[in-house]
Design goal:
about 180 residues; alpha+beta; 60s Ribosomal Protein L30, Chain: A; five-stranded mixed β-sheet; 5 helices; 5 strands; globular
Length: about 180
């Protein structure tokens, strides 16, 4: 629709950070899960924006579901009922993102043209937070942390995000993708 001369838009993790307004393991995990799902569904082919429906296991406002959904929408175009309704029946991306989907654990991505589906889940247990974070977070949340403690927490927090994105991006123990029949 004229946004680029060849119709291709490239996204990077920083785009997801800008959208969410922060960088955290949830944003990084949503990024990794969505990228893995698209790679599994499309292989070397370029994914089509709005060509995937996404089914999430939780309601929209449960925990971090909304943040995850924002990253999913960024990369796939899939939105709930409030999304882009298209032009004359073309390019619609609304009603492609579904919450509280029965029988779904984590997320299911379905390629709309072929019906191919993959279930994707995230397990961060092999990329744990630094123990010092558990001591620092209560101080930060209560307003008692020094600026040095806040900076240290941020450094440790982003170190975990960096480990996820750089060391575990293709780790099947962290991002599990299962083809569905």
């Amino acid at each position: 629709m004229g946004a680029s001369s060849d119709g291709v838009l490239e996204y990077c993790y920083l785009d997801a950070v800008r959208l969410a307004g922060h960088s955290c393991p949830t944003v990084a995990g949503a990024w990794l899960c969505t990228v893995a799902a698209l790679k599994n569904l499309y292989g070397e082919q370029l994914p089509e924006r709005g060509g995937v429906s996404v089914y999430m296991d939780e309601v929209e406002d449960a925990g971090v579901t909304g943040v995850i959904a924002q990253v999913v929408t960024l990369l796939t175009g899939a939105t709930a009922a409030n999304g882009f309704k298209g032009l004359a029946g073309r390019y619609a991306r609304n009603n492609l993102l579904h919450y509280a989907s029965e029988g779904v654990q984590g997320m299911v991505f379905r390629r709309n043209d072929t019906g191919q589906q993959v279930a994707v889940s995230l397990d961060l247990s092999s990329v744990p937070a630094e123990p010092a974070q558990h001591t620092l977070i209560p101080l930060i949340l209560s307003g008692q942390a020094t600026s040095e403690q806040e900076q240290e927490f941020g450094r440790l927090w982003q170190n975990r995000v960096q480990r996820l994105l750089l060391e575990h991006a293709n780790d099947p123990e962290v991002v599990q993708v299962t083809a569905l029949a």
